[in-house]
Amino acid sequence: MIAVLARIAAAAAGALAGAAVAKELDKPNDERNWHGEIAGVPYDLRTPTVDKLRRAVWDPDNPNVVGPPPFGVGWSVNLARLAAMVQPPTVAPAPTGPRELPAAGRPALPAAHEHPEPSDGQPPLS
Asked: Quick check: is 104 in a domain?
């Protein structure tokens, strides 16, 4: 099954590449720019440069995860944007200032070893 899907994908890529070349060859020489879209799929048939290859694969300033390829037909994945998306969110550090004291007039809680008197006036049960 996977081999069949791979053959279909390869045939589609080949057909799109052929259509892109045909589209460029149909234009007059001075209008050929060798990049654009064919059937909604981007293509770039110009000679790739190192900078173009790097920007296609790693461009933290680009907000898109996918973009046009540095060479060929299809899309390239911006790994910098993808890495930024999968990083865990940063957690704000806990405040280090003084702790809040009880409000004036509010009794402090009794210590763990003290037993408060019941509020109904009865002595505590032992």
From this structure: no
pTM of the model: 0.64
Q: What mean pLDDT, rounded, does the chain reach?
A: 85
The confidence score (pLDDT) of residue 126 equals 57
Strand locations in the chain, DSSP E? 35-38, 41-44, 66-67, 72-73, 76-77
**Domain of residue 50, residue span:** 2-85
> How many other C-beta atoms are found inside a 10 Å radius of the C-beta of residue 51?
9
Count, residues in the chain: 126
CB neighbourhood size of 58 (10 A): 14
Total domains in the fold of the chain: 1
DSSP state of 22: H
120 within some domain: no
